[in-house]
Amino acid sequence: MKLFKLIVHQKNFSGEDLIINPKDYPGIKKGDIVEIFHPEDEFSRLLLQITAFKEDLQGRETVSVENNIATTFQLRTFADVYMNIVNPNDVALDSVELTFKDQYMGRSEMWRLKNCLVNTCVYLNKKIEFCGGSIRCQVHEMWSQGDRVACGVITDDTKVVFRSSTSMVYLFIQMSSEMWDFDIHGDLYFEKAVNGFLADLFQKWKKNGSNHEVTIVLFSRTFYNATSLEEFPNHMRECLQHDYRGRFYEDFYRVAVQNERYEDWSNILVQLRKLFTDYQKIVLEYHQRPGIVMPKAINSTAAQGNFLEVLNMSLNVFEKHYLDRSFDRTGQLSVVITPGVGVFEVDRELTNVTKQRIIDNGVGSDLVCVGEQPLHAVPLLKFHNKDTSINAADDYSMPHWINLSFYSTNKKIPYSTFIPRIKLPPKISKPPSECGKLPNKTKLLQEDGSECLRNTLFDYDAYDAQVFQLPPVHTASLQRVSTRTKKTSVACMETHSNSQALKLLKRKMSDPDIHHPPPDTHSSPTVASRSAAISIPHRADDLISVNSNGEVNSKPRISLIDDHGDVEISPPFRPVVGSAGSPTNSVTQPNNIRPGRALINPFDPSHVTIKLTSNRRRWTHIFPKGPTGVLIQQHHYQAVPTQSSPEQLSDTMSILSSSPNEHSIASINAQSTCQIPRSASQIGFQDHMKGKAMRLNFPLNSVDKTGHIGPPTTNNKSLTLLWGATGEQEWTPALTTANIGVDWRSLTIPACLPITTDYFPDKRSLQNDYVVSDYNLLPDDVNADFAQLRAIYKKPLNTAEVFKELVSQRLAQGFQLIILPPANKTQATTPGSKPPVPLSSLMRGMQVESEPKEEYLLSIGRIFHKISLCGNSITVTRYRPRHPYPPFNIHYRYRFHAPHHDTYEVSWVSFTTEKLENYNWNYLDHYICTRGDTDFSLVEALKYWRFRVFLLPLNTPATRRILDGSVHCDIYSPATSAEQANFMEGFLRFIETWLNRIRRPNANKNWSPAALVGVPPRDPASHLTRRRHSTSLIFLTNQTSLVGSSPFRERLGSNRLPEKPRPRSGSKVMDRGRVSPASEAVLPHSPELQQQQDHSECSEDSINAEVSKIKSSASNAEILEAMKQPHTGIGFLTQHPSLPSLTFVSAEAVQWLNNHIEGGVTVEKAIIIMEGMIRERLICHASGSFKKPFILGFYLYHIVQDKDGQKDREYFPPLGDLRSFENEWVEVEMKVPKGWCEPTAPTQISNISSPISIPSCDIIDESSVPVFLRDDSDLVFLTEDRERPAPVSPYKHTHLDIDINNKSDRIEWGHLRYQSLFKTDYSYELVVQWVASSGSIVADLIFGWQRKAQLCGIQMVPIPSDLLALPFTLKSDPLRGPIFIPLHTECLMTNKPYLFDEFREDTYTQRLFLFQEAIVQRFGFVPCLVEGTENDHQYVHVTGNAFILVPSTSCIRARPRTDTNIIRRITGQKRYPVHPDQSSPHEAYITRHVSGKNKDDYSMDRRVGFLWSWNHMVSRKWKSLSTSATGDELFQKKIIQDFRNFCSNADNRLRQYWESCWELKEKTCSRTE
Question: What is this structure's pTM?
């Protein structure tokens, strides 16, 4: 042991945690783990890894530790410390928890991060970065050898748990009748839930810095006292459902908070209290109308509420996480807060659906009970007893997939410490009501005359033993058992009041985890006693268990394979059905027994084990191992009195073990006193002092006969305990006498689904229960072909990269890596070891040539994949269940009330289980192999991730005015031509520079921006709108930091430097004296220089503009020569791979022609000239295809070279393949705005910015009249203009380089889906799609675009996959729905029978629509082209805050139409259906909205209006990046409020607008007369 002086250093001095001089410690090498501690302090031993040496460290024999670490471990500067090298295995961690916030970390990233942490040293609060710093997390907690520790080494076997401080959290508050009851402290349970639990929770969030995205929903079920549907008035019937007992009910959901993040949640508590005051009244009296009799409504109890339905609602949102991918949160959590005690009556099928969905989706589900903890095991689900015979036994299930917490306030009652654990039933005075009407049973005790029960004499234990024992073979006389029914807080413990014979129990066939044989019809009917077989043994001797086929198995402990735990019976054709224990003294029974199903006794589930399945072990790796070696849940407290000496300790244990010998006590003692070399005692975790009081956190009965403290599971590895999330902690009565506390950690920093698990079926099960299939991939062979087909050569993935990526993809889709314990190595292998001969080859009798180098096992549900790498071949073996579960599809109707709504609207939803075995892995694996080749395009079924954005104009003056306090919001006017031209210029620049990453050479400086854009040169903004080639220097000022890793496409083919260039573009390019793009980006700029440049350019431009004009009669060849001129010609792009020489952009060619031909040319004329050049083969599309016509917009064309030109060394030929070219470059057609590039005489320059009206050929010029009041002929013309046929396909796809800054540790790529047509008065949509990318790197790319777009005058806003969340769309969120805002047209009719009575009747529908559109546009909404909705007109607010849908069929009653010709022209595009009264799904939605508001149904005409929906994708980060009002809540409230007021004609505004429109119409008419 050598003493050193300790000094500290700051992070800015060195990024290393530890610096030493290698001369001071000979033999030390990088990567060694050392421990550092003061000799006088025993405990705070710091472990660090040596990552760097410093020969000139000040002073001899000193070590320097980073300042924060030294503080954490209480190391004193300049004091002496010991430093030893330690063996990493001695300080290995069992598990480590990492927390992260405000970012999206996919499961693949978690795995890759874990791999890069192996063999490194971590300590408390250590910050870890990955993927070039785009992923950041922090060490939160570490466990080793059953204890929390402060530092340690991560090895291959360490479980890494990821916890997210920014999750999507759904808080559901169950407003059942108990919420209005008082607890023992005199508080309402609601107060306990909100003022107690929620207040504590929000406080913990704040303390921890969690900022979850939260939705809070109040929910309840209302029962109606009715026996048939006829008793209900019509308006109530649409949402009624009835349950298995024929009771009618309706479910209500009140969304209080939707997808919000707040720093301070205290205001929300106030809001919840307000909702509470009249919640019950509103819900129960919701349907009451004067003069209508309706059945009495009753709020249900917690046990009978809609608990599972609520969980499924959140799952419908969670399972679509890949559609609306948010980049600033990870993880999903549903929390149900109930005033009950954790017992629910549920439908068996819905339970199975819920369980399968929660487990498959990897969603955390927490149940928080504010009721008192009952004296039996919970959570407990009691299945609806659909067996109508009055005496069928009740059946329970204990879900391990719900994490249970009990919240109790720490109030003290001065006179008593007693806590009553059951609620007493109410006193009954009147005779019991008839059975079956109402859920609550009122009979307290049913007396049976023949048998008078006296409590003192009744042997309850004997009775219980009889209930939980095997049915006898034959009973001669019927037993009369008098059951006592009491209404306790455990509502579902009620047995049906009966005293008849107990009938034979039927087996239920619907649990997805068990495969049933056909029922045995031949066995003789026997009369079962109360229930089959769990005895309550007096000592845990070997018990005899009897199988369904009568064999008697002797097993240690009782093993119960029950019907509702996770059971997978091995060979499906030889099922073990109900292996049930029987009392130790029972005799061997004859073979003809037909046992009933063994039921669970909730009061003693501790000995019940079930067969282990992968579902059971899905979450277990998030739990740390306790001192006893079993996984523990830290919020389960045991009631163990604190001990002061080992002798007393043995007393507690002797309760369960006859006499724990010295060995057990020694082992406990050793555990509590041994020095763990890196213990964290000084950080206050645990005192390792002898004789200190310690709380034992292990279950009492884990001390077995021999006294060993060991896992309390059975000796049989394939069984697990029925109760509890870990399956290893036993339920003991001690758990009820102490407390199951609140799992605050799960509610504050929820764990993500672990990336590892440890269950793999045994060989026999694999052969009997699974179908095996496999396929081979040879990446090198596949890639050789595909890589050459790409227009831009990308280095293909090598075999090892493909192998890792296949594992990554499965993890990303919810699979887990199976880590098998070393003992199992013979059966299957852990990564990297040599496995046995694969099963598939045994079956086929093939000989395996060589042993695989590496192999991974993965699983999800009952699907297992084995991926092995052998040489350059990858084999994927898939095991799928031979008997998959039947698919479930449960339809559910409910009423919900979302924020900003007035009513509870009816909605409906389907809960379906996904068939995971149908996922097409073969296809995806080939997609990965070929690096995303277009032959394997991403299809919906692959569940790829996507992110949608709209591009909108950035600076709208009206938005600014509203933010500055304008009273009204209907102040938006259509964009002027200049604004539209600016938007288009910005868009062209954005596509070129950021989507296509094209660089320009700096040669040309001779452009007149004034003539280009139609903006006078003295306009201060003109230097922004000038094109890139004139001022590319100006636009590069933002990139001076990009040395070396330029985000632009490099000339040689990719952003990855080591990749080899395409053969045809030799690396000679660099030698010819051209500047390389990377160095171009970093020309130093100063603002002065830029101004001089601006100035000189403007003057130079004006001189040149006069000189070089081409005669308007010039031939195409002459024009072409002028285009090629180095100074006055068109600007060509720099050479990029796959682009030919002399490439230019079509929109620029049109501008150039307008500037360089005398008198200018119109856009139409310019297109005709260019078309002629293509015909004469002078120019051609840049792909080399002459078939591609000239399209105006961002389309690339090149000048065709003659033979001599092609011999030039600098010449690059076109690709010659249109499809490959389109897969690499974004090309968009543009519909140019009026006034863009108009031919002008020099004198007119100053007024160009005003809109130019095209003279109409008609005598009447109605251009100033609002569209909806124009004459019929104009109307048709307008409609046709609007309905011009869209381009062949509205969307195009291209490859997208995602990792432009080379941050990732792997090759990443994605795709871009973009609209093929850009219109300046519409929004423009882009969708980024990926499977092989890290979320954080995609986020970097998109946020980068968002910043660059703002420089181009464009606002980029994220949008949801489903803009309006109408309830009938598949992807819609069940708790979201649009708000209907009616348009008050009655006030405009004044004595007219129809609104547009002055016009032809067949134009009514269309005029009404145009009127609505005009209103929407006044409020700043722009239309968006959304696919699949050709009948609906959707609009987005120019800030991106909200969407509006104008329903297609506006219900104005129309008589049969006359002029069919016009109809055909108008409805040619299916835009306006011919029969406006045909019903559409939104109409139903709107009708309900309207009828819900007023108690009487409105006339048809009142259904005119708008559906309004908020953009919930605008997260806090987008708000902070945006320079306009995006995400500004006050702005949002103001605008919807004002829109509502306007539509309802408040202050007569709607009417004034209508009249001002008519005035314009009348003016035009009078002028013409």
Answer: 0.78
